[in-house]
Write a structure and sequence with these properties.
485 residues; alpha+beta; Thrombin, subunit H; Pdz3 Domain; 6-stranded antiparallel β-barrel; 34% strand; globular
Length: 485
């Protein structure tokens, strides 16, 4: 009897557990459904944005002139070909020959891109590569209205172009702030991929400040962008322009999940200069730079891999006059932090030529502040010259044989110190040092002569890597070498 009662109680307890688990599962399922429904309801609806913006996005068609030669190409006489091939008597003389005709030009379609209205009086922003070398530019709105556009100005470095049509009372798109973008944020593109006008694609911001060039930190998205989208707007969920679609990363030529847009803040800075001057003026200070890697940062006493390492200073350039030296790490320029190498060209480029800017550099384990007068960026900057043959020789524990540079050698290189490597073996050779390289500094000590160099090397500890600043081809780079016993 007692056994039967215990069994009944166990069975009742099992049923209680069963129903409890059942209700718990149903509750969890209900909660999940509510959460999923909430997530679905929270997905953005882009229809209103498209309705308000697509009338301001345009299709851009361009044409170009190509040479076309009329006739048969032999002074207009088809028999000239046979005379040229078989000899002058191969065909009868047909009288006076026509003068050679110059090649004629024929206007042909060149390409298709996109753009968008940025002012009510006809200014349109697009990519430089959409309109570069175009004979004629045709702008077509979504309602079919077409205009001929003129180029106000272009900037090849940022791939930005400003064109204008003769129109009034247009509806410009609202310009947003690309600095407010966050990874994972919804964005959409409107453009003309493969000539299909007013095509809308959506996605999210995949990365910001993606470095692919000297002057632009791109916005990376997974929005489907294809040939023809170039120059079209990238919009946020408020319908504001945050970027200009410019490139795709692809192995096939079509969209593969990675598209790049010019931040609208950068593009509008260029537009203002193009509108006012028809060109973009940039600053320069006359340095070549590289990244600061982790090991080098530790070796020279930096807390992290920030800044831009100066590999070469242009002789008599703005930086040289300010006292910048190869091996310096530029940490701050004109009050703006240089977090990585690619920041410096953008900051300097955006600085008005003639500006006297404060520049913080890291040198010999401490920071120094220099004042540099920014010059205007021009092409054809000079390069460092190769030094003459070395004079005196010495050897060291790094596997190097070096010689002192004379004043003329240093002047050619634009440096104030250094020794030239005559031969390299052992530890130095293993890290890539070779003859002709210039040793400028070891750790925090400048090297002014072969004797000076020899004294420094003899004191290097054998159990610690030494940071050697090496110049090659006018560019300087830190290398780490462990001296032998």
């Amino acid at each position: 009897m007692q056994h039967s009662m215990r069994q009944t109680k166990d069975n009742n307890r099992s049923w209680v557990h069963f129903w409890a688990l059942l209700f718990l599962s149903l509750g969890l399922l209900y909660s999940y459904n509510l959460a999923a429904q909430g997530r679905i309801e929270n997905l953005p609806d882009f229809t209103q944005i498209v309705q308000e913006t697509e009338s301001s996005v345009v299709n851009i068609r361009t044409t170009e002139s190509v040479p076309v030669r009329s006739g048969h190409g032999f002074d207009g006489d088809p028999y000239d070909f046979f005379r040229w091939f078989f000899g002058p008597d191969a065909m009868p003389d047909r009288g006076p020959r026509q003068p050679r005709q110059e090649p004629e030009e024929q206007v042909v379609p060149r390409g298709v891109g996109s753009g968008f209205v940025i002012s009510d009086d006809g200014y349109i922003l697009t990519n430089n590569h959409v309109v570069a070398d175009a004979e004629d530019i045709y702008v077509t709105f979504v309602d079919g209205e077409e205009y001929t556009a003129e180029v106000i100005g272009t900037d090849e470095r940022t791939d930005v172009a400003l064109i204008k049509i003769d129109a009034k009372d247009l509806k410009p798109l609202t310009i947003g702030n690309s600095n407010d973008l966050k990874k994972g944020e919804w964005v959409l593109a409107i453009g003309s991929p493969f000539g299909l006008d007013a095509t809308v694609t959506v996605g999210v911001v995949s990365a910001i400040n993606r470095d692919t060039g000297d002057y632009l930190p791109f916005i990376q998205t997974d929005v489907a962008v294809n040939p023809g989208n170039s120059g079209g707007p990238l919009l946020n969920t408020q319908g504001e322009v945050v970027g200009v679609n410019a490139q795709i990363v692809s192995r096939s030529g079509g969209f593969m999940g990675i598209s790049l847009a010019i931040p609208i803040d950068e593009a509008m800075d260029v537009v203002e200069q193009l509108k006012e001057h028809g060109k973009v003026t940039r600053g320069r200070i006359g340095v070549q730079i590289t990244n600061v890697d982790d090991e080098v940062a530790k070796a020279i006493g930096l807390d992290n891999q920030k800044g831009a390492l100066v590999s070469h200073v242009e002789e008599d350039g703005p930086a040289a006059k300010a006292g910048v030296r190869s091996g310096d790490v530029i940490l701050d320029f004109d009050g703006k932090e240089v977090k990585q190498m690619s920041d410096l060209p953008r900051i300097v480029g955006a600085t008005q030529p003639g500006t006297k800017a404060k520049m913080k550099v890291w040198r010999k384990g401490k920071s120094e502040t220099l004042t540099v007068t920014v010059a205007e960026l021009e092409t054809g900057d000079g390069k460092a010259k190769t030094p003459k043959a070395p004079k005196e020789q010495t050897s060291d524990r790094l596997g190097l044989s070096v010689a002192t540079l004379d004043d003329e050698d240093k002047a050619h290189l634009g440096i104030d110190e250094g020794v030239v490597v005559e031969s390299a073996s052992g530890p130095a050779a293993r890290v890539g040092v070779s003859s002709g390289d210039i040793i400028l500094r070891i750790n925090d000590q400048d090297i002014t002569s072969a004797k000076d160099y020899d004294k420094v090397v003899k004191k290097l500890p054998a159990d610690k890597q030494a940071a050697i600043l090496v110049m090659r081809g006018g560019n300087a780079q830190w290398v780490l070498i462990t001296p032998s016993e």
